[in-house]
Amino acid sequence: GGLNLYDPNNETFSHFIHDPEDPTSLVDDNIIRLLVDRDGVLWVGTAKGLDRMKTQGVFEHFRHQEDKENNTIPANVFALAEGNGDDLWVGTLNGLERMNRTRETFKHYQHLPKDPTSLPHNSVWAIYLDSNHQLWVASSGGLSRLTASGSRFENFDIKDGLPTNHVASIIEVNGSLWIGTANGISRFDMK
User: Fold this and answer.
1) Alpha-carbon gap, residue 54 to 19, rounded angstroms
2) Rounded distance, CA 117 to CA 149, Å?
3) Residue 73: which pLDDT band, with cuts at 50, 70 and 90?
4) Is 110:120 a contact under the CB 8 Å cutoff?
5) Which single residue of 78, 85, 175, 191 has CA 20 to 30 Å from 133?
6) Would the pTM of this model clear 0.85, i.e. be above it?
7) What's the average model confidence in pLDDT over 126-147?
């Protein structure tokens, strides 16, 4: 487990692992998702939360802490996407997080059973920002688009033509979204 960094100049690897004696080591060796943002910062999604590499081998942790309400993230980070401005989007098994990277604060989005404009499911598998700067979320409840207000979702599922509600991946090709599901691929025309 852990994270390996390849140096093509020296043709060598550096290996980073969790060390319980070192609070600046990786939070966990089970690496699920990686993202390099527009500033060149490496974000590491793990089974125990989110890490940001500050310098080579030094990590800052964002994970759930009972005593901190607005600067923590649940475990099991399965999706990462860079949004507009300072937004970093983080998909977990407990919903979607919008992190403001400058203030290091989080806004949590979760499935609310009585609200059809909430996320349709808390298990978020992929996040995608399309060419129109709209945010799309793949979950075990279907495909969702965050509305312009930033507080509601427009949700699409089997009633709208998806082969299943379990959506795992999203990519845009020529103005259409290709949606990877547990039961095949679907094309969604955004026009």
Assistant:
1) 17
2) 12
3) confident
4) no
5) 78
6) yes
7) 96
In the chain, pLDDT over 70 holds for what percent of residues?
Answer: 94
Three-class secondary structure assignment of the chain: CCEEEEECCCCEEEEECCCCCCCCCCCCCCEEEEEECCCCCEEEEECCEEEEEEECCEEEEECCCCCCCCCCCCCCEEEEEECCCCEEEEEECCEEEEEECCCCEEEEECCCCCCCCCCCCCCEEEEEECCCCCEEEEECCEEEEECCCCCCEEEECHHHCCCCCCEEEEEEECCEEEEEECCEEEEEECC
Structure tokens at 14: 């550096």
**pLDDT digits 0-9 by tens, 141-153:** 999 999 988 899 9
Q: Are strands 176-181 and 87-92 parallel, antiparallel or unpaired?
A: unpaired
- The answer to whether 19 touches 29, Cβ cutoff 8 Å, is no
Sign of the alpha-carbon dihedral angle for 123, 173, 135, 41: positive
Cβ atoms of 136 and 124 within 8 Å: the answer is no
